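Teaching note: in complex prediction, the entire set of molecules is handled at once rather than each chain in isolation. The prompt given to students was simply: 'Predict the structure of this complex.' The entities are:
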Amino acid sequence: MARRRLSQHQKKRIDDAQQALTSANDSHQQGLVISHHGGKIIVEQEDSSLATCAVKSNLGAIVCGDQVIFEKTAENEFRVLAVKARDNLLQRLDGFGHVKSVAANITQLLICLAVKPEPNLFLLDQYLLSAEQQRIEPVIVLNKIELLDSTEDPYDLDSVYAHIGYKVIKISVKERLDLDQLKSVLDHNTTVLSGVSGVGKSSITSELLPDTYIKIAEISSANEEGRHTTRTSRLYHLPNNGQLIDTPGVRGFNPLLDPTQPVSAGFREIDQHSADCRFANCKHINEPKCAVIDAVKNKQIADSRYQHYLRMVSPD
Ligand code: GDP
Ligand code: ZN
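The expected output is the structure of the full assembly:
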Protein backbone atom coordinates (compact mmCIF):
# COMPACT_ATOMS: atom_id res chain seq x y z
CA MET A 1 0.00 0.00 0.00
CA ALA A 2 2.82 2.39 0.91
CA ARG A 3 4.15 1.79 -2.53
CA ARG A 4 0.83 2.73 -4.07
CA ARG A 5 0.60 5.95 -2.14
CA LEU A 6 4.12 6.81 -3.16
CA SER A 7 3.30 6.15 -6.76
CA GLN A 8 0.24 8.45 -6.47
CA HIS A 9 2.59 11.11 -5.17
CA GLN A 10 5.05 10.44 -7.94
CA LYS A 11 2.21 10.57 -10.43
CA LYS A 12 1.32 14.05 -9.26
CA ARG A 13 4.92 15.16 -9.63
CA ILE A 14 5.09 13.70 -13.10
CA ASP A 15 1.81 15.45 -13.96
CA ASP A 16 3.16 18.75 -12.78
CA ALA A 17 6.34 18.21 -14.74
CA GLN A 18 4.30 17.38 -17.83
CA GLN A 19 2.18 20.46 -17.36
CA ALA A 20 5.37 22.51 -17.20
CA LEU A 21 6.62 20.73 -20.32
CA THR A 22 3.54 21.57 -22.36
CA SER A 23 3.28 25.15 -21.29
CA ALA A 24 7.02 25.78 -21.45
CA ASN A 25 7.47 24.97 -25.04
CA ASP A 26 5.21 25.73 -27.98
CA SER A 27 6.81 22.99 -30.04
CA HIS A 28 5.41 20.38 -27.66
CA GLN A 29 2.18 18.82 -28.80
CA GLN A 30 -0.32 16.43 -27.32
CA GLY A 31 -1.80 13.42 -29.07
CA LEU A 32 -3.42 10.01 -28.75
CA VAL A 33 -1.41 6.80 -29.19
CA ILE A 34 -3.18 4.69 -31.81
CA SER A 35 -0.47 2.11 -32.46
CA HIS A 36 2.75 0.85 -31.01
CA HIS A 37 4.96 -1.32 -33.13
CA GLY A 38 8.65 -2.14 -33.15
CA GLY A 39 9.69 0.69 -30.87
CA LYS A 40 7.77 3.28 -32.89
CA ILE A 41 4.59 4.88 -31.73
CA ILE A 42 1.93 6.34 -33.99
CA VAL A 43 0.32 9.37 -32.43
CA GLU A 44 -2.83 10.98 -33.72
CA GLN A 45 -2.90 14.73 -33.41
CA GLU A 46 -5.99 16.82 -32.79
CA ASP A 47 -6.35 17.59 -36.50
CA SER A 48 -6.33 13.78 -37.14
CA SER A 49 -2.90 13.85 -38.77
CA LEU A 50 -0.52 11.10 -37.69
CA ALA A 51 3.01 11.41 -36.35
CA THR A 52 5.33 8.44 -36.12
CA CYS A 53 7.32 8.96 -32.97
CA ALA A 54 10.42 7.54 -31.41
CA VAL A 55 10.27 7.29 -27.64
CA LYS A 56 12.52 8.91 -25.09
CA SER A 57 13.89 6.20 -22.84
CA ASN A 58 12.62 5.70 -19.28
CA LEU A 59 9.00 6.35 -20.12
CA GLY A 60 7.87 2.82 -19.31
CA ALA A 61 5.28 1.00 -21.36
CA ILE A 62 3.28 3.19 -23.72
CA VAL A 63 0.09 1.62 -25.04
CA CYS A 64 -2.84 2.40 -27.29
CA GLY A 65 -5.16 4.89 -25.68
CA ASP A 66 -2.35 6.80 -23.96
CA GLN A 67 -2.27 10.57 -24.26
CA VAL A 68 1.30 11.71 -24.84
CA ILE A 69 3.32 14.89 -25.17
CA PHE A 70 5.64 14.85 -28.17
CA GLU A 71 7.94 17.15 -30.08
CA LYS A 72 9.27 17.50 -33.58
CA THR A 73 12.97 16.68 -33.74
CA ALA A 74 13.52 17.07 -37.51
CA GLU A 75 11.42 17.17 -40.66
CA ASN A 76 8.94 14.30 -40.26
CA GLU A 77 10.64 13.09 -37.12
CA PHE A 78 8.99 13.19 -33.74
CA ARG A 79 9.74 12.04 -30.25
CA VAL A 80 7.45 11.24 -27.33
CA LEU A 81 8.56 13.09 -24.22
CA ALA A 82 5.96 12.16 -21.63
CA VAL A 83 2.85 10.11 -21.00
CA LYS A 84 -0.07 11.95 -19.44
CA ALA A 85 -1.66 10.58 -16.26
CA ARG A 86 -4.04 7.73 -17.09
CA ASP A 87 -7.63 7.18 -16.01
CA ASN A 88 -6.81 3.49 -16.00
CA LEU A 89 -4.44 0.96 -17.47
CA LEU A 90 -5.71 -2.45 -18.52
CA GLN A 91 -3.12 -5.03 -17.58
CA ARG A 92 -2.85 -8.77 -18.05
CA LEU A 93 -0.60 -11.63 -17.04
CA ASP A 94 1.58 -13.11 -19.75
CA GLY A 95 2.47 -16.79 -20.02
CA PHE A 96 5.30 -16.33 -17.50
CA GLY A 97 3.13 -14.62 -14.91
CA HIS A 98 4.55 -11.17 -15.70
CA VAL A 99 2.29 -8.14 -15.68
CA LYS A 100 1.91 -6.56 -19.12
CA SER A 101 0.08 -3.41 -20.10
CA VAL A 102 -2.64 -3.86 -22.73
CA ALA A 103 -4.32 -0.47 -23.25
CA ALA A 104 -4.89 2.80 -21.43
CA ASN A 105 -7.84 5.06 -20.71
CA ILE A 106 -10.42 2.48 -21.68
CA THR A 107 -13.98 2.67 -20.43
CA GLN A 108 -15.24 -0.77 -21.28
CA LEU A 109 -14.06 -4.38 -21.46
CA LEU A 110 -16.09 -6.72 -23.64
CA ILE A 111 -15.83 -10.21 -22.18
CA CYS A 112 -16.63 -12.50 -25.10
CA LEU A 113 -18.15 -15.91 -24.50
CA ALA A 114 -19.68 -18.36 -26.94
CA VAL A 115 -22.08 -21.26 -26.99
CA LYS A 116 -19.12 -23.19 -28.34
CA PRO A 117 -16.55 -23.48 -26.75
CA GLU A 118 -18.89 -23.51 -23.78
CA PRO A 119 -18.31 -20.69 -21.29
CA ASN A 120 -16.15 -21.21 -18.25
CA LEU A 121 -18.06 -19.17 -15.68
CA PHE A 122 -15.19 -19.24 -13.18
CA LEU A 123 -13.02 -17.52 -15.77
CA LEU A 124 -15.86 -15.08 -16.47
CA ASP A 125 -15.96 -14.18 -12.77
CA GLN A 126 -12.19 -13.68 -12.81
CA TYR A 127 -12.52 -11.31 -15.77
CA LEU A 128 -15.32 -9.45 -13.99
CA LEU A 129 -13.27 -9.15 -10.81
CA SER A 130 -10.26 -7.95 -12.78
CA ALA A 131 -12.34 -5.32 -14.59
CA GLU A 132 -13.93 -4.12 -11.34
CA GLN A 133 -10.50 -3.81 -9.71
CA GLN A 134 -9.18 -1.83 -12.65
CA ARG A 135 -12.27 0.41 -12.70
CA ILE A 136 -13.33 -0.67 -16.17
CA GLU A 137 -16.98 -1.42 -16.96
CA PRO A 138 -17.33 -5.01 -18.14
CA VAL A 139 -19.91 -6.06 -20.76
CA ILE A 140 -20.69 -9.75 -21.29
CA VAL A 141 -21.14 -10.82 -24.91
CA LEU A 142 -22.39 -14.29 -25.77
CA ASN A 143 -21.69 -15.18 -29.41
CA LYS A 144 -22.92 -18.08 -31.59
CA ILE A 145 -26.43 -18.03 -30.12
CA GLU A 146 -27.78 -19.63 -33.30
CA LEU A 147 -26.30 -22.87 -31.90
CA LEU A 148 -28.62 -22.76 -28.87
CA ASP A 149 -31.47 -25.25 -28.78
CA SER A 150 -33.81 -22.97 -26.91
CA THR A 151 -34.00 -19.29 -26.15
CA GLU A 152 -34.02 -19.92 -22.43
CA ASP A 153 -31.51 -18.08 -20.28
CA PRO A 154 -28.23 -19.70 -21.37
CA TYR A 155 -25.65 -20.23 -18.62
CA ASP A 156 -27.82 -18.13 -16.28
CA LEU A 157 -26.43 -14.99 -17.87
CA ASP A 158 -29.69 -13.12 -17.31
CA SER A 159 -30.74 -14.55 -13.98
CA VAL A 160 -27.29 -14.21 -12.41
CA TYR A 161 -25.28 -11.59 -14.29
CA ALA A 162 -27.84 -9.19 -15.74
CA HIS A 163 -29.61 -9.46 -12.40
CA ILE A 164 -26.64 -7.88 -10.60
CA GLY A 165 -26.35 -5.13 -13.16
CA TYR A 166 -23.99 -6.37 -15.85
CA LYS A 167 -24.92 -5.70 -19.43
CA VAL A 168 -25.40 -8.99 -21.29
CA ILE A 169 -25.58 -9.04 -25.07
CA LYS A 170 -26.36 -12.18 -27.06
CA ILE A 171 -25.37 -12.24 -30.68
CA SER A 172 -24.53 -14.40 -33.64
CA VAL A 173 -21.95 -13.03 -36.02
CA LYS A 174 -22.66 -15.89 -38.38
CA GLU A 175 -26.41 -15.29 -38.57
CA ARG A 176 -26.00 -11.54 -38.02
CA LEU A 177 -28.26 -11.59 -34.97
CA ASP A 178 -28.41 -8.51 -32.73
CA LEU A 179 -25.22 -6.97 -34.07
CA ASP A 180 -26.79 -3.52 -33.84
CA GLN A 181 -27.16 -3.98 -30.13
CA LEU A 182 -23.48 -4.83 -29.90
CA LYS A 183 -22.51 -1.81 -32.00
CA SER A 184 -24.53 0.56 -29.88
CA VAL A 185 -22.72 -0.38 -26.65
CA LEU A 186 -19.53 0.83 -28.29
CA ASP A 187 -20.90 4.35 -28.83
CA HIS A 188 -19.06 6.96 -26.75
CA ASN A 189 -16.81 4.31 -25.22
CA THR A 190 -13.23 3.15 -25.57
CA THR A 191 -13.50 -0.62 -25.68
CA VAL A 192 -11.18 -3.62 -25.56
CA LEU A 193 -12.26 -7.18 -26.43
CA SER A 194 -11.24 -10.15 -24.33
CA GLY A 195 -12.12 -13.82 -24.13
CA VAL A 196 -10.64 -17.23 -24.81
CA SER A 197 -9.64 -18.45 -28.23
CA GLY A 198 -12.43 -19.56 -30.57
CA VAL A 199 -15.31 -17.52 -29.16
CA GLY A 200 -15.34 -15.21 -32.18
CA LYS A 201 -13.33 -12.15 -31.19
CA SER A 202 -11.74 -11.76 -34.63
CA SER A 203 -15.12 -12.21 -36.29
CA ILE A 204 -16.67 -9.61 -34.00
CA THR A 205 -13.80 -7.19 -34.63
CA SER A 206 -14.25 -7.49 -38.40
CA GLU A 207 -17.95 -6.73 -37.97
CA LEU A 208 -17.28 -3.67 -35.89
CA LEU A 209 -14.59 -2.03 -37.95
CA PRO A 210 -15.53 0.03 -40.95
CA ASP A 211 -14.46 -1.52 -44.28
CA THR A 212 -11.64 0.94 -44.78
CA TYR A 213 -9.95 -0.27 -41.63
CA ILE A 214 -10.29 -3.93 -42.60
CA LYS A 215 -8.54 -3.17 -45.87
CA ILE A 216 -5.73 -1.45 -44.00
CA ALA A 217 -5.40 -4.45 -41.69
CA GLU A 218 -5.31 -6.81 -44.67
CA ILE A 219 -2.62 -4.81 -46.37
CA SER A 220 -0.49 -4.57 -43.27
CA SER A 221 -0.79 -8.28 -42.60
CA ALA A 222 0.08 -9.05 -46.20
CA ASN A 223 3.25 -7.05 -45.71
CA GLU A 224 4.31 -9.12 -42.79
CA GLU A 225 5.88 -12.04 -44.52
CA GLY A 226 4.40 -15.39 -43.70
CA ARG A 227 2.04 -13.96 -41.15
CA HIS A 228 -1.67 -14.16 -41.64
CA THR A 229 -2.65 -11.70 -39.01
CA THR A 230 -0.94 -8.58 -37.82
CA ARG A 231 -0.24 -8.66 -34.10
CA THR A 232 0.07 -4.94 -33.61
CA SER A 233 -2.40 -3.34 -31.23
CA ARG A 234 -4.33 -0.55 -32.84
CA LEU A 235 -6.94 2.00 -31.84
CA TYR A 236 -9.76 2.44 -34.35
CA HIS A 237 -12.35 5.19 -34.42
CA LEU A 238 -15.94 4.02 -34.72
CA PRO A 239 -19.12 5.92 -35.52
CA ASN A 240 -20.77 7.88 -32.65
CA ASN A 241 -17.54 8.71 -30.88
CA GLY A 242 -16.64 5.11 -30.14
CA GLN A 243 -13.13 3.71 -30.13
CA LEU A 244 -12.08 0.09 -30.35
CA ILE A 245 -8.61 -0.92 -29.28
CA ASP A 246 -7.86 -4.15 -31.06
CA THR A 247 -5.11 -6.19 -29.42
CA PRO A 248 -4.75 -9.17 -31.78
CA GLY A 249 -1.77 -10.72 -30.02
CA VAL A 250 -3.28 -10.68 -26.56
CA ARG A 251 -7.05 -10.94 -26.87
CA GLY A 252 -7.16 -14.21 -24.98
CA PHE A 253 -5.34 -12.70 -22.04
CA ASN A 254 -5.35 -13.96 -18.49
CA PRO A 255 -7.12 -11.53 -16.22
CA LEU A 256 -4.87 -9.75 -13.76
CA LEU A 257 -6.06 -9.99 -10.18
CA ASP A 258 -4.80 -7.49 -7.64
CA PRO A 259 -3.82 -9.25 -4.40
CA THR A 260 -3.86 -5.95 -2.49
CA GLN A 261 -7.59 -5.45 -3.02
CA PRO A 262 -10.22 -7.53 -1.22
CA VAL A 263 -11.86 -10.03 -3.57
CA SER A 264 -15.26 -9.25 -2.07
CA ALA A 265 -15.09 -5.64 -3.30
CA GLY A 266 -15.00 -6.94 -6.87
CA PHE A 267 -18.08 -9.13 -6.47
CA ARG A 268 -20.68 -6.39 -6.53
CA GLU A 269 -23.53 -8.31 -4.90
CA ILE A 270 -21.24 -9.67 -2.16
CA ASP A 271 -19.86 -6.21 -1.55
CA GLN A 272 -23.37 -4.85 -1.25
CA HIS A 273 -24.51 -7.41 1.33
CA SER A 274 -21.26 -7.28 3.32
CA ALA A 275 -22.31 -3.96 4.85
CA ASP A 276 -24.73 -5.97 7.03
CA CYS A 277 -22.21 -8.53 8.30
CA ARG A 278 -21.62 -8.47 12.05
CA PHE A 279 -17.84 -8.08 11.66
CA ALA A 280 -16.43 -5.28 9.59
CA ASN A 281 -13.56 -7.53 8.48
CA CYS A 282 -15.84 -10.51 7.71
CA LYS A 283 -14.47 -12.65 4.88
CA HIS A 284 -17.85 -14.35 4.39
CA ILE A 285 -16.38 -17.84 4.74
CA ASN A 286 -17.69 -19.20 8.06
CA GLU A 287 -18.12 -16.19 10.33
CA PRO A 288 -21.22 -15.89 12.52
CA LYS A 289 -23.93 -13.44 11.48
CA CYS A 290 -22.55 -13.11 7.99
CA ALA A 291 -25.06 -11.32 5.77
CA VAL A 292 -23.41 -12.73 2.65
CA ILE A 293 -23.79 -16.36 3.76
CA ASP A 294 -27.41 -15.58 4.69
CA ALA A 295 -28.00 -14.06 1.27
CA VAL A 296 -26.57 -17.18 -0.40
CA LYS A 297 -28.86 -19.35 1.73
CA ASN A 298 -31.96 -17.44 0.76
CA LYS A 299 -30.83 -17.25 -2.88
CA GLN A 300 -30.35 -13.49 -3.05
CA ILE A 301 -26.76 -14.26 -4.05
CA ALA A 302 -26.24 -16.99 -6.66
CA ASP A 303 -24.48 -20.02 -5.19
CA SER A 304 -22.27 -20.31 -8.30
CA ARG A 305 -20.92 -16.80 -7.79
CA TYR A 306 -20.35 -17.43 -4.09
CA GLN A 307 -18.48 -20.68 -4.81
CA HIS A 308 -16.26 -18.81 -7.27
CA TYR A 309 -15.70 -16.13 -4.68
CA LEU A 310 -14.57 -18.78 -2.18
CA ARG A 311 -12.21 -20.27 -4.77
CA MET A 312 -10.66 -16.88 -5.40
CA VAL A 313 -10.31 -16.00 -1.71
CA SER A 314 -8.54 -19.26 -0.94
CA PRO A 315 -7.35 -20.66 -4.27
CA ASP A 316 -6.23 -24.03 -2.82
P1 GDP B 1 -11.32 -15.85 -31.82
O1 GDP B 1 -10.30 -16.92 -31.62
O2 GDP B 1 -12.01 -15.52 -30.56
O3 GDP B 1 -10.79 -14.63 -32.51
O4 GDP B 1 -12.46 -16.48 -32.75
P2 GDP B 1 -12.68 -16.35 -34.33
O5 GDP B 1 -13.29 -15.04 -34.70
O6 GDP B 1 -11.43 -16.76 -35.03
O7 GDP B 1 -13.80 -17.47 -34.52
C1 GDP B 1 -13.60 -18.82 -34.19
C2 GDP B 1 -14.51 -19.66 -35.05
O8 GDP B 1 -15.88 -19.42 -34.72
C3 GDP B 1 -14.38 -19.38 -36.54
O9 GDP B 1 -14.44 -20.57 -37.24
C4 GDP B 1 -15.59 -18.49 -36.84
O10 GDP B 1 -16.03 -18.61 -38.18
C5 GDP B 1 -16.60 -19.08 -35.90
N1 GDP B 1 -17.67 -18.14 -35.56
C6 GDP B 1 -17.60 -16.80 -35.31
N2 GDP B 1 -18.83 -16.30 -35.03
C7 GDP B 1 -19.69 -17.34 -35.08
C8 GDP B 1 -21.10 -17.46 -34.87
O11 GDP B 1 -21.84 -16.51 -34.60
N3 GDP B 1 -21.63 -18.73 -34.98
C9 GDP B 1 -20.86 -19.81 -35.28
N4 GDP B 1 -21.49 -20.99 -35.38
N5 GDP B 1 -19.55 -19.72 -35.53
C10 GDP B 1 -18.96 -18.50 -35.41
ZN1 ZN C 1 -19.79 -11.74 5.89
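Point out the following to students. Residues 143-144, 146-147, 172-174, 197-203 surround guanosine-5'-diphosphate (ligand 1) (CB under 6 Å). The chain has nine helices and 14 strands.
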